[in-house]
Amino acid sequence: MAQPARAVSCSVGVTRDRFLADLYPQRKPVVLKGIDLGACTAKWTVDYLSQTAGTKEVKIHVSTVPQMDFLSKNFVYRTLPFDTFVQRAAEVKHTEYFISEDEKYYLRSLGEDPRKDIADIRKQFPLLAEDIQIPEYFAKEQFFSSVFRISSAGLQLWTHYDVMDNFLIQVTGKKRVVLYSPRDAPYLYLAGTKSEVLDVDNPDLEKYPLFLKARRYECYLEAGDVLFIPALWFHNVISEEFGVGVNIFWKHLPSQCYDKTDTYGNKDPTAATRAVQILDRALKTLEELPEEYRDFYARRMVLRIQEKAYSTNYE
């Protein structure tokens, strides 16, 4: 069993000034309620979405299991007209399907050329963008992307972190979100930006014994809720119902800190990438020593990293 969860705090009717002065500096997740998101929370039914976005083709994830794993790729990519996709994603059982009648669907919108262009709902789904009022709690020049997402009921996305701050806007449906602090990265069995632990509710503790040390936070998002996810906070998202959301990513660091080829907002800052490369070279150099010496100097390196780089500004 996983650790008992700590509830993510909630704030109602938060203004931009209060968010920036009181909540944002804490660098912790918080659920914002009572924010005016425009007409989308009432209008974005399955039929309305189908009619408004029409037959535009979208690339989607199709999975036969609820827990999607980006590391093992236990899903396939397929393309469907948007209206067909929405109708299927809202179904529990399908009469038309790719793999099985209970397969699940997930859309993460992409730029026109995903290798060069960011996702922006105003460009990919302009008519739908007119319905949503995005909380402008950051400077316009900090904006990075607005990602339109649709998930089948029961779908669970892998635990991962992003390198930019993020508003997860739950427009319709319900989600459960499990989060972990950046400080608990040593317990999450990382492969790049993603955790190998898929089932955060019932983890395999024989395979992942350190996972119990990770402090777990949890919240439930209703339609109209906005979850602030600070950069580097790990999050695992479970769609309790068919639902539609929009993620807004913005740059917390100066623009030059980010990888210019990053269109998804999940490539590590350039300085961090360089540091890891330097560390890999240092570890390769240690291989020239016998085991006893290699172990001794590796432990000294760890102590030096802790002394020079670890922060004390965590609870």
Task: Give structural notes.
The chain is about 25% helix and about 25% strand. With about 325 residues, the chain is α+β, with helices and mostly antiparallel strands. The chain folds into 2 domains: about 5-255, Sandwich (Jelly Rolls), CATH 2.60.120; about 270-310. The strands form 3 sheets. A 9-stranded mixed β-sheet has the order 2-3-14-9-16-7-6-4-5. Strands 1-13-10-15-8 form a 5-stranded mixed β-sheet, with no helix packed on it. Helix 3 runs antiparallel to helix 4 (about 80-90). The model has no long low-confidence stretch (mean pLDDT about 95).
Topology of helices and strands:
Layout: E1 6-7, E2 9-12, H1 16-23, E3 30-33, H2 40-43, H3 46-53, E4 57-63, E5 76-81, H4 82-89, E6 104-108, H5 121-124, H6 126-129, E7 143-151, E8 156-160, E9 165-172, E10 175-180, E11 190-191, E12 194-195, E13 216-221, E14 226-229, E15 234-239, E16 243-250, H7 270-286, H8 291-309
Parallel strand pairs: 1-13, 2-3
Antiparallel strand pairs: 3-14, 4-5, 4-6, 6-7, 7-16, 8-15, 9-14, 9-16, 10-13, 10-15, 11-12
Named at the architecture level, the CATH assignment of the largest domain is Sandwich
> What's the CATH topology name of the largest domain?
Jelly Rolls
Low-confidence stretches: none
What is the radius of gyration computed over CA atoms, rounded to a whole number of angstroms?
21 Å
Tell me about the biggest sheet? 9 strands, mixed
> Can you tell me the CATH superfamily of the largest domain?
Cupin
Mean pLDDT: 94
Domain tally = 2
Can you identify the CATH class of the largest domain?
A: Mainly Beta
Number of strands: 16
Oligomer: single chain
Strand content: 25-35%
Tell me roughly what share of residues is in helical segments: 10-25%
Looking at the structure, what is the overall shape?
A: globular
Largest sheet strand order:
2-3-14-9-16-7-6-4-5
Organism: Alligator sinensis (Chinese alligator)
Pfam family, one: Cupin_8
Protein name: tRNA wybutosine-synthesizing protein 5
GO molecular function: metal ion binding; tRNA binding; tRNA(Phe) (7-(3-amino-3-carboxypropyl)wyosine37-C2)-hydroxylase activity
